C-alpha cells in the first residue's frame, strides 16, 4: 500500500476548527482498580463500526523510561490527528485512551486490563520495556484484542494478534557492527541494563561481532535505576575495548554516558547503541556529537512525507532537538493500524490481524510491513552521524533486513 501524502492531514490541528467529530479524544488515566482480568472486551471486540475506533495506549509517562514514553505519546497523538483529518477509520474518528504503566510490569498488566475491561478499546499500543510489553501483550492476547509495541528489540511474546513495529535486535546491529569494527577496531565492550532486552540485544550482537572478525572483551550489566555506574565503567576500562555497544535505557542512559565521559571511558573510543537515541541528546549534547548509530528514523530524511511530519511535530512541540525514532515509529504505527482497519471493513480483531501482514506502507520508515510467519517488522534502517545541535545526519539508508528468526505467533 502506498502512503497517501500527509501534507494536508498533518496541518489539521492548525487549520481546522469546530470539527469535533475529527478531534483526538485523549483520556489520560493512571493505574486504578485491580483484580484479574474477567469478562470480554465489550463492544471493542464485536466488530462494530458505527462508532469511533478506540485505541488504548500504554506508556511510561513517569518513571525511569519516561523520556521514551512521552515520545511514544507524542507520536501517537500526531498519528491520530493525521488519520482523523483524513476521515478517520471507516468514516469514524480514532479515540485515544492513555494509561501510565510507570515502566512496571505489574502496573502494565493492571492498566491494560483497565483499557480492555473498562474502556472497551479495540486495539492496544505500547509500551517501552520488554517485560512491560510482555505483560500488556499477554492481557491483550487473553482478551483477543490486537496489540502492537513500538520499542526496538524483540518482545519475548507473540500471538495471532501481536504486531511489533520496533526494529528487531538483528535489524538494529547487523549493518552497524561491521561499520563500527571498520571505524574503530575489533575489540568490543558490551554494557546494558539487567533485563530481557539488553541480554537479547547483546546475544545477537555477539554473534555478528564474531562473524565480522571481532571479539567481545567485556560484557557488563546493571539494574534499571542504577545511579552509580563507576564499578561497571571501571571493568569496561580495564578490558580496553576499541568501542562500546550500549543497551542502557531511559534515565540510566544519561547517567551512564555522563559518568563514562567524566571517568574517561569514552576518550579515544567509539560508542554506539541505545544511548545514542535522539531523546537523549538534550541531556548529553556534546558527548554524543560525532558519534554514529543506526536507527529506524532520522528527521533529516528527505521526502514530502517526512517534511510534513517534521513540520507538524515542530509546531506542536517546538523546534528544539532531534525528533526521536520512537515518535516517528508510533506515528507510523497509528497510520498502519488505521489502514488495516479500513481494509478489514470493521473492528473485529481477526479481520484486522488478517490485514496486518498484507499491507505495505511507504512513509517515514521506508517500505514498512510485516512477515506473516513470525510477525517481525520490515523497514528501512538509517546509519546516522550525530552533529552539533542534535542533527542526526543521514550517512546511508540501509537496505531492509528481513529477520527470519522463527517464533510461534499462532
From TrEMBL:
Assigned keywords, A-Z: Signal
Entries under InterPro entries matching the protein: Leu-bd (IPR028081), Peripla_BP_I (IPR028082)
Gene3D superfamilies: 3.40.50.2300
Coiled-coil residue spans: none
Ranges of residues in domain Leucine-binding protein: 54-390
Signal peptide from the UniProt entry: 1-38
Source organism superkingdom: Bacteria
Homology family: Belongs to the leucine-binding protein family.
PANTHER family: ALIPHATIC AMIDASE EXPRESSION-REGULATING PROTEIN, PTHR47628
Name assigned to this protein: Branched-chain amino acid transport system substrate-binding protein/urea transport system substrate-binding protein
Organism expressing this protein natively: Microbacterium invictum
Amino acid at each position: 500500500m502506498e502512503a497517501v501524502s500527509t501534507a494536508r492531514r498533518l496541518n489539521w490541528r492548525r487549520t481546522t476548527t469546530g470539527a469535533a467529530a475529527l478531534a483526538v479524544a485523549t483520556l489520560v488515566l493512571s493505574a486504578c482498580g485491580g483484580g484479574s482480568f474477567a469478562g470480554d472486551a465489550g463492544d471493542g471486540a464485536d466488530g462494530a463500526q458505527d462508532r469511533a475506533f478506540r485505541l488504548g495506549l500504554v506508556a511510561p509517562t513517569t518513571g525511569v523510561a519516561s523520556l521514551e514514553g512521552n515520545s511514544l505519546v507524542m507520536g501517537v497523538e500526531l498519528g491520530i490527528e493525521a488519520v482523523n483529518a483524513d476521515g478517520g477509520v471507516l468514516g469514524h474518528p480514532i479515540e485515544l485512551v492513555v494509561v501510565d504503566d510507570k515502566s512496571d510490569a505489574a502496573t502494565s498488566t493492571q492498566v491494560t486490563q483497565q483499557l480492555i475491561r473498562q474502556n472497551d478499546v479495540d486495539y492496544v499500543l505500547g509500551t517501552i520495556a520488554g517485560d512491560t510489553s510482555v505483560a500488556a501483550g499477554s492481557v491483550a492476547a487473553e482478551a483477543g484484542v490486537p496489540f502492537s509495541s513500538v520499542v526496538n528489540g524483540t518482545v519475548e511474546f507473540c500471538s495471532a494478534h501481536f504486531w511489533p513495529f520496533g526494529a528487531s535486535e538483528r535489524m538494529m546491529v547487523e549493518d552497524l557492527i561491521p561499520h563500527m569494527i571498520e571505524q574503530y577496531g575489533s575489540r568490543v565492550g558490551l554494557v546494558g541494563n539487567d533485563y530481557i532486552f539488553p541480554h537479547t540485544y547483546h546475544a545477537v550482537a555477539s554473534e555478528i561481532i564474531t562473524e565480522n572478525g571481532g571479539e567481545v572483551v567485556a560484557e557488563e550489566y546493571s539494574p534499571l535505576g542504577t545511579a552509580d555506574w563507576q564499578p561497571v565503567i571501571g571493568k569496561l576500562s580495564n578490558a580496553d575495548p576499541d568501542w562500546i555497544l550500549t543497551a542502557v535505557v531511559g534515565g540510566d542512559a544519561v547517567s551512564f554516558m555522563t559518568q563514562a565521559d567524566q571517568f574517561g571511558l569514552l576518550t579515544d573510543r567509539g560508542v554506539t547503541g541505545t544511548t545514542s537515541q535522539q531523546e537523549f541528546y538534550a541531556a548529553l549534547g556534546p558527548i554524543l556529537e560525532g558519534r554514529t548509530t543506526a536507527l529506524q528514523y532520522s528527521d533529516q530524511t528527505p521526502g514530502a512525507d517526512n517534511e510534513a511530519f517534521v513540520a507538524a511535530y515542530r509546531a506542536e512541540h517546538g523546534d528544539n532537538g532531534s525528533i526521536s525514532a520512537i515518535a516517528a515509529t508510533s506515528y507510523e504505527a497509528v497510520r498502519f493500524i488505521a489502514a488495516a482497519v479500513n481494509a478489514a471493513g470493521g473492528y473485529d480483531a481477526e479481520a484486522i490481524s488478517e490485514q496486518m501482514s498484507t499491507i505495505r506502507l511507504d512513509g517515514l520508515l521506508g517500505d514498512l510491513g510485516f512477515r506473516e510467519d513470525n510477525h517481525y517488522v520490515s523497514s528501512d534502517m538509517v546509519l546516522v552521524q550525530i552533529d552539533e545541535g542534535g542533527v542526526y545526519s543521514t550517512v546511508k539508508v540501509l537496505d531492509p533486513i528481513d529477520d527470519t528468526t522463527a517464533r510461534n505467533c499462532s
